[in-house]
Each structure stands twice: as C-alpha cells, then as structure tokens.
Design a protein that fits this description.
about 150 residues, 3-stranded parallel beta sheet, about 10% strand
Length: about 150
C-alpha cells in the first residue's frame, strides 16, 4: 500500500521558515498514515505539478534527512529518559527501604510514595515503551523510504 500525496507545488511540503525542514502539516500527514498502515512495504508517492529533476532530488534528500534527524533526536531523548527512569527506580527502592526504618505514619508515607513511583515505571515500561518503539520505527522507515514522483 502506498501513501499518495498530491501537492500544488514543492512549497507545500517544505517549511516556509527553514527550507531544510518539512512543513508541519506534511510531517503530521506522513506520520499519521504510517501509524495506521503496515508501512514496511509502503512507498511515498508524491504528485507535484511541474517539479524539476533537481527539486525532486532536493525534496527526497530533505525528507530523508528530516526523519533521520528526527530519529536521532528521538533516540537521544529516549536515552535521557531511560536514565531518569533508572533514577526514579532507585529512589523508589530507597523509599521502600527507608519505610522499613520507621514504625509510624512516616513508614506508610514512604511506602506509598515508593510504590507509586515503582508502579509508574512499570506502567511506562509495559505500555509506553510499545508506543516509543513504534514511533522510532516510523521515523526510521521515513528516513529510508522509497519516494516516487508522478506527474
């Protein structure tokens, strides 16, 4: 299955403030269609009136570079978030251990806080990790996608 895109001109795909980035609407359109499709064998089919060979090559490079940069930024942020998750996990375990030192209200307070932290991390790993991996796969696919120009 292909993602068919019809544009009046090349400027509909490119950000008007930075010619090396994609238009936000164009980006959202591609991401949305990749989320609902099995994008592994999908091609981007661009229908643009009167586009020159030079502009075809430029647009193809812009699309690939844009998603490669987006993938790199996403991976860096995911690495940083992994360190934060590890830090919170250590804090949660320490709070559980600290709760054993107290025998009153403070013990219950530390224990509840610790389990809330640990539960949030487990929830993140079980449910949000799938979304993060899917997003990274979409960026990787778009960074290497086969682009066909028609018209």
């Amino acid at each position: 299955m292909n993602i068919d895109i019809i544009l009046d001109n090349i400027n509909d795909a490119i950000c008007k403030y930075n010619k090396n980035e994609l238009n936000e609407n164009f980006d959202n359109y591609l991401i949305t269609h990749c989320e609902v499709l099995n994008f592994k064998n999908t091609e981007l089919v661009l229908n643009i009136e009167g586009i020159s060979k030079r502009n075809k090559g430029n647009l193809e490079n812009i699309i690939h570079d844009y998603y490669l940069n987006k993938l790199n930024r996403f991976n860096k942020m995911d690495d940083i978030e992994s360190y934060i998750r590890i830090g919170f996990f250590i804090i949660g375990i320490l709070a559980i251990l600290i709760s054993e030192l107290f025998t009153s209200f403070l013990s219950e307070l530390f224990l509840i806080a610790a389990w809330v932290i640990v539960w949030e991390l487990v929830y993140d790993l079980l449910f949000n990790e799938i979304k993060r991996r899917r997003k990274a796969k979409i960026y990787k696919y778009l960074a290497n996608a086969k682009i066909i120009f028609r018209k």
